[in-house]
Amino acid sequence: MAPIALPQNSPIPVPQAPSDPPTVNDFHRAWEYRRSIESGMFALAPNVTATHLTDAHAYETKILMGRSNDVAPPWLAAALQPIRNELRALRDDIGELRDSLGELQDDLHDFRNETRDSLAKIRSTSTKTHNKLSAEGTFYPYEEVPFVDNSLPTEAPHDLPLLHSEAAVDGLTGPQATSYFQGYYPAQVVPHTVAARLLAIKRAIGCTRGTTHNA
To answer: Is Coiled coil there in the keyword field (predicted)?
Structure first.
């Protein structure tokens, strides 16, 4: 009989080439190979596909038939048909499971983003409320209010001074005031005067007092 070809493009090491005719050890190695492929499928290994599983079963069957001088007993085809049916069903189930996992990952990603945005809004509202109750921030320093994109003004890439009080706002330079304004009002045109920028910044962080900056 013609030599039995080993599985091609296997994601795991294939058994050693079988004898002609195959031996009991050849069948055992084919069986172990098929079990290893099945384990990879059940573990959802990305490099193991239904094609690999089908090839592994086909190789194991050829080894078994080869031990019978390449003549399958009459009952073998009928006995193998339920296995083939189970393999097709298993392949379909695994495909559906992978699709479901992909949808679940998308849902978790959306939920994480929504939760992050909600927490950012809650934090911003809470911080602004604290600042409103702190008057000019002398005795109770202001807390840092995140920009619209949820980044913090004092962290990279902004690296701006902390606005812990009304005086800290009034102490901003023109460029710093511009950066703060753009962070809190990204869709608006930057006011020409520094005083107008500072007033807008105070409103954004919850400082209700007027500007004392000399433009």
So the answer is: yes
